[in-house]
Amino acid sequence: MTDQIEPAVVVVVAAALYDTDGRLLAARRSAPPSLAGRWELPGGKVEPGETQERALVRELREELGVEASPVARVPGEWPLKPGYVLRVWRCSLDSGVPAPLQDHDELRWLAPADIWSVNWLDQDVPAVKSLSED
Ligand SMILES: Nc1nc2c([nH]c(=O)n2[C@H]2C[C@H](O)[C@@H](COP(=O)(O)OP(=O)(O)OP(=O)(O)O)O2)c(=O)[nH]1
After folding, report:
1. Taking every annotated instance into account, which residue ranges of this chain make up the domain Nudix hydrolase (predicted)?
2. What is the ipTM of this complex?
C-alpha cells in the first residue's frame, strides 16, 4: 500500500483588507468567550469541497457584507489551536462598506503606526507582523 493518510488540518482563511489610505482592517471577535474582545483578520474555516479563495470570498460576504477578491497569498501559515492553521491573503475590496454583521462587534481601520494598538489574538501576531514586513 502506498496510500498515506493525510493528517486532517482545518484551514482558516483570513483577509488582509486595506483601504485607499493603506489602513488594515481589524475585526474584534464577539464569540466564543475565550476569544471575544480580541482582534483578528476577518475570515473563517474552509468548508469541505470548497477552495480556499472561495471560502474567503464567502466569509467576507457573510461577516462583513462586502464583495472582496483575494489578490495574493501572504507567504507562510500560522498554527491556531491543534488541527487548525491560519493562511492569509491580501484582498481587494470590490464593493460595500465593511460592517460587523457576524462574529464581530467592532471593526477598525488601522494605519501602519497604529497596527499594534489593538489586542490581536496571539495567533494573529506573527501573521500581522508578516504583513508589515512583506
Ligand atoms: N477568522 C479568523 N479566525 C481566527 C483567526 N485567528 C484565530 O485564531 N482564529 C480562530 C478562531 C476560530 O477558532 C477559528 C475560525 O473560526 P471562525 O468562527 O472564524 O470560522 P467560521 O466562520 O467558519 O465558523 P463557524 O461559525 O462556521 O464555526 O480560527 C483569524 O485571524 N481569523
Report:
1. 8-134
2. 0.90
